[in-house]
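seq:
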Amino acid sequence: MASFLRGSAAGSTAARGVFPGASSVRSRLSAYPLWTFLAGGGRSEALDRYGTLAARLLISQVFLLSGVMKVMDPAGTAAQMEGRGMFWVPFFLWAAAAVELGGGLSLLLGYKARLGALVLFLFLIPVTLTFHTWWTYADPKEQHVNMLFFLHNLTLMGGLLLVMAVGPGPLSLDLKGRRPS
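struct:
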């Protein structure tokens, strides 16, 4: 169906045989920019401009809030870390706060956003495997909550990969005064 909507040669030939008049439907639908965009073609200027900014803001808030919470309650965070068997707790506590705040600000402002996303991506690997090993919990409720946090972190990692791949977008300090390529 996607090839039918995009108008590839194979899709058009098959569509003519299976769906009489399909080419006229396709040409009428292609007149609508939203339909063209949803069918995988075209671009949305507003999404190009504001979508990357919104994505960076949404992803950064998780890290900024987590970093601020570590700074505001270091004793509580240290107790959690000790409960998971971590060593060098003071070092890792302040390193984690610095990574979350630095990476979160990098994303928020779009300054060195690809580097910030990479650092946060790499940070999430040991964090996820240390704090959200849902398969080790006996209590089904704790197992469920930690599975959700595990998946949450995987989702964040996917968003960070997109920032690394696409870049910060035009509304960022990285691209201030320049047109994106």
